[in-house]
Amino acid sequence: MAKVNNIFPPIMKTIKIDAYYLIILTFFTISCQQHIPFETISEGHIVKAEGFSQGTAWGDFDNDGFEDLFVTNSWTNGNNFLYKNNGDGTFTHQDKAAPANDGGNSNGCCWGDIDNDGDLDLFVANVNDQNNFLYRNNGDGTFEKVTTGDAVNDKGWSYTCSFADYNRDGWLDLFVGNYKDQANFLYTNDGQGNFIRTHISPFDTDKGSTQGSSWVDSNNDGWPDLIVVNYHKNFMYRNNGDGTFTRVNNAITKEDNNSFGCSSADFNNDGLTDLFIANWQGKNQLFQNTGNFEYLKITSGEIVNERLDSEGSSWGDVNNDGYLDLFVTNDGNNSFFLNDGDDSFSKDETISPVNDNANSNGVTLNDFDNDGDLDLFIANGGNQPNLLYRNQQNSGNWLKVKCTGTTSNKSAIGAKIILYHNKKTQYREISAQTGGGYGAQNGLIAHFGIPKNQTKVDSLMILWPSGKKSIKKQIDINTIIHIFESN
Fold it and tell me: Is the whole model's pTM more than 0.85, yes or no?
């Protein structure tokens, strides 16, 4: 078992978030790990169709309480896939209309409510100098393809995309990352769901063959910052809170690799969001956030010493023990790392998802059947069928939190959720881009694992992008709660 250096002592640490002070206890007991019984789903179009799938994103587009799945296909101008979750463990392939009837060379994708009308819209990034796709949700289970505006007429080699309300005006903005040494695109929402290209430095000047991106509030000041991973050196941008960004130099940006994707998460439960980068033809990288845009590069452990041509990654508490685990997709067998709860990870090579040899790209961890544990979807290229696994473990408890903004953007992207239970703390940030492999979105409903000896969550705090705060106390576990931002 490989150890990750623990730079945080077991003491009380105060972290400032949007002028609120959270007392976060960073000492936790080491948890016992067990193998996760994943069941391979073998029936249905979702695992039968062959293609060159790249990105994958979960989102409840019809508001029925079950998150649906969108999957991109690239290099052959084949149609993308949209699957409606039937709520009984099966999916219906939606192949008759947008957004599944457009042929394109599609890579990244993400869901977000761009017009704040209560239903999720979809953006798709395309390569080969094709226009990108934007689909507005009509609210009746159908979509309208948007054909006017900057976001769908700026041709490029777009590999990644992600929504965030970077100026905190209550409307989702959009970042699109481009390959082939092209400048990336930043679009500002005009307050009516339309995107206007924002020409500011350093976005108009930095060119780095971008393949992955992640919006995350790195320094907990309430403003979403941006991490961009490239073929060669990576970029990180500090949001100055006035509509401008400053390029940051730190351990992340000093590296020079062929980085395909990145995923952000607080793996050590200290209230700071850490970063994993999946690299092709090189070791993967794990960076521990130590505050104020400084990151510690982890150098020990199999999690950062494999050389398996990695593309995608996804964080999630797969065994519901209160610590985030990591799944990594490779060109070949994949990798799964269980979080040991003491700043170390153990590689599990027994589960079927790491032994199904394939050309794997995007990956998501999402509880598609609402039974409280995270299931696994893998998008495969090479004209191979995609893979879906149902998590059948029954240890530990759970809580799922759906947030809806009022002053903040309706999707609550950028909201921070802090959960307290039995003197322990967990932290999540709602994101439109949670993985790599050209793009992956776990969904907009936050999942928390709760140790099996717990019966209630002591309290839950939500810090909304608007700066407002919501607190709920004595919450029942093993349920889904829906929290609205108060006016």
Answer: yes
